[in-house]
Amino acid sequence: MTASPLPPGSLHLLPVAGIGEVTPGDDVSAVILDGLDGCGIELGDGDIVVVTHKIISKAEGRVADVPTEAAYRRLAESEAAAVIRRRGDLMIAVTRHGFVCANAGVDRSNVAGDRAVMLPIDPDASAHRIRLRLERATGARLAVVVTDTFGRPWRRGLTDVAIGVSGIDPILDLRGTPDANGRVLDVTEVAIVDELAAAADLVMGKATGIPVAIVRGLVWERGEGRAADLVRPPAEDMFR
Amino acid sequence: MTASPLPPGSLHLLPVAGIGEVTPGDDVSAVILDGLDGCGIELGDGDIVVVTHKIISKAEGRVADVPTEAAYRRLAESEAAAVIRRRGDLMIAVTRHGFVCANAGVDRSNVAGDRAVMLPIDPDASAHRIRLRLERATGARLAVVVTDTFGRPWRRGLTDVAIGVSGIDPILDLRGTPDANGRVLDVTEVAIVDELAAAADLVMGKATGIPVAIVRGLVWERGEGRAADLVRPPAEDMFR
Question: For the structural domain made of B12-62+120-230, what CATH number should be given?
Fold first, then answer.
């Protein structure tokens, strides 16, 4: 339709299609490298690899049988560190990582049979391992963002957010940055990895079986933060 | 760094740089068309135009003098339909549109002098007007998403979300869609316009004065929804 060249500063979201079922013991970084190979994508410096947690959880064996609705509910309860609200069958819980989400992140979609997938034990550590292996294999300076799909208060619909991060700070801190009018910004902390997760979901989809996307073209600095840093300290939180 | 071609299904985020200060009475669609022209971007069928509300509010005269901190607070109070929480100087309020955000959406960054910008009176109507004019000028089938930057409970940092929409349904409804394993998805409603807003913010930034971005490459269907549809009905909301 349009043939105009893309302006400088453009950003690209590349879906990594063709990744098959992942099973316990699989090496997720090898799975990703195979997928990239199949798509003809060569990772380069500055690429951000966004991975839905589901393939990581499966590789790490965080899958359980839930033959009945009651078994599913018991599993979700066992994954919850605290419950914030309940309504009917819906439980809004705090996970052991500190994330607040429905059913403590236990999910039955995109898993075969009567099984459910839990969150990785330590998604930041998973992201870190994947980043190191991908960097070693490609020689590129990368970041890795592990995602899940969360609801939120007040707004309908779900969006993908970051639950694991390696190589990039999860928060872009603009404190002290002047805006276009020279005034210091009111908005100081941008949850950039959540924006990356949401952006990547646009090419991953929920039903298409694309568990990995590459974000290319963002200017970012190496950071050592973890997604756990995204958790608002309960004492500062007005909605617990 | 990388010369590999982008795989099919890739999505592109194009910043529209070079848009100057907008003043009351300006035609935002003309401002956008000028900006696109300056960047050499030609709109095509399926392009989604993401616009930060701030230039719309300014064009619509939704700017007020706030010479003192107290004046700023009074303005925020007057924009609030209801207050959900207060802590110190921070007010979490429901706007007249039904959105829940800090200070009822009244913001002092990226506005000259001791002034503050309010949300547009009807951001869906603003988006609609902009879409019709851009479609008439370009002949392309477009969608328009108007954004603001909101905080959220439980998670640190802010992300951009949609507060006005035209031409696309704000919610992608996957009810009844089977996942890659043939199971009907647990996740049924994706807030796709919020993901578009978050993605666009990656190229717009907060301090760079880029108020417009184009999302190119997404497959979407014409829809008639409004961002107001994103408001979760208070009776269904567990966090009021």
Answer: 3.30.1330.100
Touching check for A190 and chain B: CB below 8 Å?
yes
The residue extents of the domains of chain B are 12-62+120-230, 63-118
B207 near A CB under 8 A: yes
Cβ-based contacts of A195 with chain B (< 8 Å):
159-160, 198-199, 201-202
Helix (H, G, I), strand (E, B) or coil at B142: coil
Please indicate if any CB of chain B lies within 8 Å of the CB of A69. no
The residues, any chain, with a CB within 8 Å of residue B116's CB and separated by 6 or more, are B63, B64, B66, B72, B75, B106, B107, B108
Residue pLDDT, tens place only, A181-237 = 666 666 579 999 999 999 999 999 766 789 999 999 999 999 988 999 999 998 888
Kindly indicate whether the domain formed by A63-118 is annotated with CATH number 3.90.1660.10.
yes
Closest residue in A to B154 (Cα–Cα): A232
Task: Mark yes or no for CB contact A209/B179 under 8 Å.
Answer: yes
Q: What is the distance in angstroms between the Cα of B104 and the nearest Cα belonging to chain A?
A: 14
Q: Does A87 touch chain B (CB under 8 A)?
A: yes
Angle between helices A123-138 and A28-39 (to 10 degrees): 50
- In terms of Cα–Cα distance, which of B5, B15, B1 is closest to B199? B15
What is the phi/psi pair of residue A41, to 5°?
-95, 130
CATH superfamily of A12-62+119-231: CofE-like (3.30.1330.100)
Structure tokens at B25: 């009475």
Which residues make Cβ contacts (< 8 Å) with residue B2, sequence separation at least 6? A42, A43, A44, A47, A216
pTM: 0.95
Token output for B171 = 């919610």
